[in-house]
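Interim report to the steering committee. The following record documents the input for Arginine transport ATP-binding protein ArtM (242 residues).
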Amino acid sequence: MLPRETPDRAAASIAGRATAALETRQLSRKSGDRILVHDVSVAVTAGEILAVVGPSGAGKSSFLRLLNRLDEPTSGTVLLKSTDYRSIAPQDLRRRVGMVMQTAYLFPGTVADNIAFGPRQRGEAPAPDRIAALLERVGLPGFSDRHVSNLSGGEAQRVALARTLANEPDALLLDEPTSALDEASVRGIEELILGIVGERRMTCVIVTHNRTQAMRLAGRTMVMEAGRLAAIGPTREVLHAG
């Protein structure tokens, strides 16, 4: 078994990762007497995919939601490119740290309406060719005028990803993004994630119950148990040790 991560070990690891694009420092969240996330310190670099695995109820999704303040930490903080995220306006933070959920929650209307939503909140109107380019990149050319009610699960997830990319985020958070999809759609979304993270040098954190998926996507994996960081390291070493 790999040694359990301790605050001292985590701090030493972070100190050696000076180019961290997204970093947590002793991040914790409690709800009443229940500990959801406890004292998690980890750093992720630009262009890196970090997988988060662990049993049901381990705190994986709770940890992910803390990274862009969808939930508020009880203690500790997150740094985005060395800036404490408490100093960043929440709307700007969620543009820069985009999230794609397990189910694609699309707004009623067309695909183009959904992709344009984020920029319009900032007073920008993305040109049709910009929307077309994003759809081309996620494998949905010609879908601009398609109504979202006519999309398959895999197509909806690609639109959700394109909508997030329209905000030009620094980091991408993925919460079980393929768990509701068939195998062909799963592999397509995985290839898309790998390509986009590589092209844009984005930081990516993905929660997954599928350890094989973690091995396909992530260079490093962190294991959570009871809200705590139990182990972190190269994916194959961590998962084979488990």
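The CA atoms of residues 11 and 41 lie 7 Å apart. The committee is asked to note this result when reviewing the revised timeline.
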